[in-house]
């Protein structure tokens, strides 16, 4: 393992204070741009249904306010009127315009959320494990070898992405939240399931927690011999890189990372980068260096999102830059079938064309990336391409991961559909009754 360095570049010794902005700050933030009263009301209406949270670093360092509303990080973090169906937007805007009682606004927001498929792909039923007759609602066990852990204290982020498929975690409705603080039962479940070799600590963002709290979830994993890799899902490198530099317990966090590596486990920081603009500040690069000095590996992933990164140029730059910074391009995801998918989703045919064009522009080192990938009910479905087979135009697909391991890496075909945006939009090619034996769409 490389020697961990605590030295910072002299220009990075300042200690910025994290400041969060929430819906009550939205109007003030929008004073930076010229929007009509109607446009402002529409954005407030969206933020009453879907979560909004950003911070001083994103606002002051990442967004080019002269390019708003087209700036990609603005679209990535600020509500857009198209995120709600037009009739739902009008309903919420009318309530806000007439200063309706809070209870009425909350009730309307809840009704709209329930129509936005808040928990796709079996998250609240098919993925929830059972231990000694008890459902462990803060864990997800979709694939035999991998368990996801949702720490209760980590169910927020330094800033929220507008397209986030985990938006139900952040809207203040406890019945929609996946979370646990039962570390003992989590450990017992993992010991009872030796097939689990990898854990993913996720959220929200686990790195909003103090290192002391994060340690309570991570260190017990090191006592389970069958757990060989620990992953931490985070957007903090992009949205608050000072977490690794000058936060009060930044050095403690890096020591925890080094401890995981020293235990003989693979530690992967699953870093969420959406646009190359997030990589340009010097502080991000320094934060990535410090993480890598612990022996941890940074793997970068993010979704293809309309209006933010739906160009081959953006993805090629993102993959080349992360590779140059010592990180590993991992997944390009398809926008999931929840929340504002109708606004941010990119058709699969166009998405694959963007992926292929970007992939062709980068070096072999960056071609570790896989995509476009749908985290659908059966597993991670990868769109490999479009081809003509037996006279029929088809999508060629395979499963990178699956609930049923027998389905992994077996190619299958779907009838070509230029407008399809998700796996459930597809039909088997050649008039077949199913894609593969045992592979169902739902």
Shape: globular
Task: Note the beta-strand portion.
Answer: 15-25%
Roughly what percent helix? Answer: 25-40%
How would you spell out the order of helices and strands? EHHEHHHHEEEEHEHEHHEHEHEHHEEEE
Structural class comes to: alpha/beta
First-last Cα distance = 44 Å
Count of helix runs: 14
Strand tally is 15
**What radius of gyration results from the CA coordinates?**
22 Å
Main β-sheet description: 11 strands, mixed
User: Which residue ranges are poorly predicted, with pLDDT under 50 across at least 5 consecutive positions?
Assistant: none
Side-by-side strand order of the widest sheet: 5-6-7-8-9-10-11-12-13-14-15
Give the overall pLDDT as a whole number.
Answer: 95
């Amino acid at each position: 393992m490389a020697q961990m360095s605590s030295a910072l570049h002299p220009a990075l010794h300042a200690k910025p204070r994290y400041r969060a902005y929430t819906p009550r700050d939205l109007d003030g933030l929008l004073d930076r741009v010229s929007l009509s009263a109607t446009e402002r009301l529409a954005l407030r209406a969206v933020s009453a249904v879907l979560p909004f949270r950003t911070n001083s670093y994103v606002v002051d360092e990442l967004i080019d306010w002269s390019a708003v509303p087209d700036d990609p990080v603005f679209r990535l973090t600020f509500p857009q009127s198209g995120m709600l169906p037009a009739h739902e937007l009008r309903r919420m805007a009318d309530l806000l315009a007439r200063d309706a009682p809070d209870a009425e606004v909350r009730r309307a927001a809840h009704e709209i959320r329930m129509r936005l498929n808040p928990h796709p792909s079996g998250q609240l039923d098919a993925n929830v494990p059972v231990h000694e007759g008890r459902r462990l609602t803060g864990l997800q066990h979709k694939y035999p070898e991998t368990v996801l852990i949702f720490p209760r204290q980590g169910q927020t982020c330094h800033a929220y992405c507008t397209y986030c498929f985990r938006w139900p975690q952040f809207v203040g409705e406890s019945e929609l939240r996946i979370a646990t603080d039962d570390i003992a039962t989590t450990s017992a479940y993992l010991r009872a399931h030796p097939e689990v070799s990898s854990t993913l600590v996720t959220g929200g963002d686990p790195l909003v927690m103090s290192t002391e709290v994060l340690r309570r979830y991570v260190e017990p994993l090191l006592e389970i011999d069958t757990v060989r890799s620990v992953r931490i899902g985070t957007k903090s490198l992009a949205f608050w890189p000072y977490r690794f530099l000058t936060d009060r317990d930044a050095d403690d966090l890096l020591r925890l990372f080094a401890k995981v590596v020293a235990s003989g486990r693979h530690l992967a920081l699953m870093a969420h980068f959406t646009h190359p603009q997030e990589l340009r500040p010097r502080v991000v690069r320094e934060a990535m260096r410090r993480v890598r000095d612990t022996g941890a590996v940074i793997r970068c992933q993010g979704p293809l999102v309309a209006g933010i990164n739906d160009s081959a140029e953006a993805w090629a730059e993102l993959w080349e830059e992360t590779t140059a910074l010592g990180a590993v391009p991992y997944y390009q995801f398809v926008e999931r079938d929840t929340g504002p998918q109708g606004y941010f989703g990119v058709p699969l045919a166009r998405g694959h064309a963007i992926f292929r064009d970007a992939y062709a522009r980068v070096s072999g080192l960056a071609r570790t990336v896989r995509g476009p990938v749908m985290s659908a009910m059966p597993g991670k479905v990868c769109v490999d391409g479009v081809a003509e087979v037996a006279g029929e135009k088809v999508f060629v697909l395979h499963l990178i991961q699956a609930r049923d391991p027998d389905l992994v890496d077996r190619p299958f075909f779907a009838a070509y559909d230029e407008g399809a945006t998700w796996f459930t939009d597809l039909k088997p090619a050649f008039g077949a009754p199913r894609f593969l034996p045992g592979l169902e769409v739902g």
